[in-house]
Amino acid sequence: MAGIIDSYIPVAIILVVAIIMPFITMFIVNVLSPRSSGETKFDTYESGSDPTGEARIQFKVEYYLYAISFVIFDVAVLFMFPWSVVFVGYDIAALLTIELLIFITVLLFGFVYLWKKEGLQWEK
Amino acid sequence: MEDILLLAPEIILAVTALVVLVAGLYLKTEHKVALGFISVAGIIMAIALTMSIMLAKTSASMFYDTMVIDPLSQVFKLVFLSVALLVSIASVKYVSEDRNTEEFFALLLLAIIGMMVVSSSNDLITLFLGFELAGLATYALVGFEKKNIKVLEASMKYFIIGAVSSAFLLFGMSYVYGMTGTTNIPGIAANAHLLVDNPIGIVAIVMLIAGFGYKMSLVPFHMWAPDTYQGAPSVISALLAGASKKMGFIAAFKVIIVALIALNAEWQTIFAVLAVITMTLGNVVALSQDSVKRMLAYSSVAQAGYISMAFVVLTPTALAGGILYILSHAFMKAGAFIAVAIVGFMILVGNKDARDTDHIDNFRGLSKRMPITAFALMVFLLALAGIPATAGFVSKFVLFSSTIEAGLVWLAVIAILNSAISLFYYARVIKYMYFMPTEGGRITEPAPYAIAMILALVAVLVIGIWPEPFIYWASEAANVLLI
C-alpha cells in the first residue's frame, strides 16, 4: 500500500504546482502590467472590425447529423484494423471475409436509414 | 458453429429490427402497421426458439466464456420476450398513423436484445454492453412523443439518472477487475475472498449495488422511476416496469449474489433493511397518488422491495420465489400499464386535448364504459396485492414462506403487512371503476390493446391456478445461481 502511495508523490507535487501556478501568474501580471482605460478596451476585437449581431446564434443541426453519420465509417475502419492484423496465419481467410462483409452490411443499414430519412440533405 | 444457433433468438430479433427499420423507409405511413406485425412475428419466433432451448435443458458457454446458456438465462429471456410481445402487440395501435413507426419497433427489439444479452452474459464487459444497449434504446423510446413536454421531462430524467448509474456500474466493475484480476463472473466468484477482505472491494460492491439499484429502483435510487413511468407513453412504462427493471435483477443476481455468498451474514442485515425501506416507502407513498400511472410506479418500487428479499434469504427456495415473482410481476405490471393505456385512449377519443389521461377520475365507472378493461385491470391490481388464484399470490407465497423457513420471521411479517397496506390503493382504483357513476357511453377497446391485455390476463391467471411448471423452472434457474 505504501509503495503505491509513494509512486503518486510526483503527481501530488504537479497537482499542487498546477493549482498554485495560475494565482502566481495572475499576481505577477497584476503587478507588472501597464494599464490604460478606454472605450475600445471592451470591444470584442480591439483592433478589428466592429462585431454585428448577437454572439448566441443558432446554427444548423444538420452539421451534427453529418458528424454522427461519419461514425458509421469510423466504426467500420476501427474494426477493420484489428481484423486485418490479428488473424494473420490462421488460414481462415474465406470465413473472415464473409464475417467482415456481414458486419459492414449491418453498418450500411445505418447509412441507408440516414439517406432515406433525408439526413444528408443540407436544405430541407 | 453449432453454438451460435443457441443465440438464434437474439439473431432473429436483430434481423427483424433491421428489416423493420429498412422496410419502414419504403412504406407509406398508412401501410406502416405491417411493421408491427413483422415485429410480433419475430418476437414469437424468438419465444419459440428460446423455449425449445430451455426445454432441452441446454447448458453451454460460448464466445470464450463471455456468454452462457442455462435455465437461468432462458427463463429471464422468456420474461423479456413475453413483455416485448405484449408491448409490441399493444403498440400496433399506439404507433398507428405515426410516421416514425419503424424507429419505435426497431428500438423496442434492440432494447430486448440488450436485456437478453445481460441475462446471458458471463462477463462484466458483456453485461455492461447489454445494459447500455437496452438503456440507450429505452431512453429514446421514453421520449418517443418528442412534441410532448411531459414525455421529454421523463426522458431527460431517465437519461441523466441512467448515465449516472452506468458510471457507478463501470467504476465498480473497474475496482472488481483491479481486485480480482478478471472480468469473468465465475472467475470473480472463485476470487471473491480478495474482494471481500479489502476495503476497496467493499467500495466496489457498494458501487455495483448502486448501479444495479437504479435499474431495479431500490429505495435510495428510485427517484427517477415515478417521474419516468408517469411521463412515458403507457406502453413504454409497461416495457420499463416489466422488462427493463428485471434486467437490473438478473444482473444483480449474477454479480452481487456471488459476492453476497462470500460476505455471509454481515450484509444480510443491510440488504434486509434496504428491502424493508423499499417496500414500505413504495407502498406508503403510493397511498396518496391520484395519477394511476404514478401509483403503479410506486407499487413497482414496493414490489422491487419484495423481490430483493431473495437477496437477504439466499436459499434456493427464496431465489426461486424471487424469480417467480419477477415472472409474475412482469405480466401483472405490463398488463396494468396496458390497461391504463386503453383508458388513456378512451379519454382521448372523447376529448383530443385531454391532459393527465391517467388521473383516477378518468377511471370512474369504467366497468360501464369498458367492461373487459375494467375486469382485466381489477385482476391485475388484485394480483399485485397478492389475492389467491392469481400469479401475485403464488409468487408472494413462495417468497414469504421461504423467508419464514429461513428464520427471518420479522421480515416476512413486515412484507405481509406491506401487502395489506397495498391492498388499500389497489382497491381504491377498483372502487372508482365499479362503484362510481359516469356519464360517458360505452367504447369498444381497439383490438391490439385488447389482445395484449387479455394475453397478460391469461398469463396471470394461469400462473395463479397452475403454478407447478413455473415454480419448477424458477427453481431450475435458481439452482444455477447457487452451484
From TrEMBL, chain A:
<feature type="transmembrane region" description="Helical">
    <location>
        <begin position="12"/>
        <end position="32"/>
    </location>
</feature>
<dbReference type="InterPro" id="IPR023043">
    <property type="entry name" value="NAD(P)H_OxRDtase_bac/plastid"/>
</dbReference>
<dbReference type="GO" id="GO:0030964">
    <property type="term" value="C:NADH dehydrogenase complex"/>
</dbReference>
<feature type="transmembrane region" description="Helical">
    <location>
        <begin position="63"/>
        <end position="86"/>
    </location>
</feature>
<keyword id="KW-1133">Transmembrane helix</keyword>
<keyword id="KW-0472">Membrane</keyword>
<dbReference type="Pfam" id="PF00507">
    <property type="entry name" value="Oxidored_q4"/>
</dbReference>
<comment type="similarity">
    <text>Belongs to the complex I subunit 3 family.</text>
</comment>
<feature type="transmembrane region" description="Helical">
    <location>
        <begin position="92"/>
        <end position="115"/>
    </location>
</feature>
<keyword id="KW-0813">Transport</keyword>
<dbReference type="InterPro" id="IPR000440">
    <property type="entry name" value="NADH_UbQ/plastoQ_OxRdtase_su3"/>
</dbReference>
<dbReference type="GO" id="GO:0008137">
    <property type="term" value="F:NADH dehydrogenase (ubiquinone) activity"/>
</dbReference>
<dbReference type="InterPro" id="IPR038430">
    <property type="entry name" value="NDAH_ubi_oxred_su3_sf"/>
</dbReference>
<keyword id="KW-0812">Transmembrane</keyword>
<dbReference type="GO" id="GO:0016651">
    <property type="term" value="F:oxidoreductase activity, acting on NAD(P)H"/>
</dbReference>
<protein>
    <submittedName>
        <fullName>NAD(P)H-quinone oxidoreductase subunit 3</fullName>
    </submittedName>
</protein>
